[in-house]
Amino acid sequence: MTPTALPPISLSPSVVVFDYGEVISREPSEADRAALLARAGVPADEFWGAYWAHREGLDRGTTSIARYWRAVADDTGATWGSLDVHELWAIDHRSWLSVDPGTLAVLHALVDGGTRIALLSNAGADFSGWLRHGSFAPLFDQVFVSGELELVKPEAAIYEHVIDALAIEPAQLLFVDNRSENVEGARAVGGDGHVFTDAAALERWLRSLA
User: Fold this and answer.
1) Per-residue model confidence as pLDDT tens digits over 63-73
2) 9, 20, 155, 168: which could form a disulfide with 172 (CB 3.0–4.6 Å)?
3) Does the pLDDT of residue 1 top 60, yes or no?
4) Backbone angles phi, psi at 176, to 5 degrees
5) Spatial CA neighbour of 22 closest among 185, 182, 165, 133
């Protein structure tokens, strides 16, 4: 179903900065997860534990894709060659490329209201092309990818970088993320934020500020 266009939301001079994963994008589907697990060929508990345990280095840009999957293999006892890693990367990468139409409608309502928006994602540099050049990218004033900055949320330095780059005061930062610790990170540097659960709750929060 095509989402209904929303009335404009005007919050200038504040800038609304959005996380990507599980805010703009949907979380990987059960089918996506099953495909990755089947290709990995290791027990689910072992795989997902290792998958998340080594993710920060990938998001920070200090661990290469090959090194990341090698670390997952070491933890799970898998014996993946280079071709296996290419396919595991592709399945994993593709699983994060969905979009939430409700959130996209909120993005458009903000832009239609003259509100500046930006994107700040904990993601490897391999996602930068999608985030900078996807169909939604022109909506954003700037796109910040942790893997390019070698900084990750909720570290203060990454929010301070965003504030400086957007040329705003800390109090003008409104940050939206599905993880409460990342929203608290924005509040710790003087901004405000909203813990994302769904697009309807996000819209209500934004309109309450307007």
Assistant:
1) 999 999 999 99
2) 168
3) no
4) -120, 120
5) 182
Token representation of residue 96: 């994060």
Handedness of CA 166, 172, 175, 181 (dihedral sign): positive
Query: Among 94, 60, 57, which Cα is nearest to 72's?
Result: 57
> What's the one-letter identity of residue 156?
A
The answer to whether 107 touches 117, Cβ cutoff 8 Å, is yes
* CA 121 to the chain's CA centroid: 4
**What is the per-residue pLDDT across 43-90, written as a single tens digit (0 to 9) for each?**
999 999 999 999 999 999 999 999 999 999 999 999 999 999 999 999
- CA 62, CA 84: separation in Å to the nearest integer? 22
As given in the structure block, the two tokens for residue 141 are 């004033």
User: Tell me, what amino acid is at 138?
Assistant: P
Task: Give the tens place of pLDDT for each residue, 94-104.
Answer: 999 999 999 99
117's enclosing H/E stretch is: strand 116-121
For 79, list phi and psi in degrees, rounded to 5: -120, 80
The pTM for the full model equals: 0.95
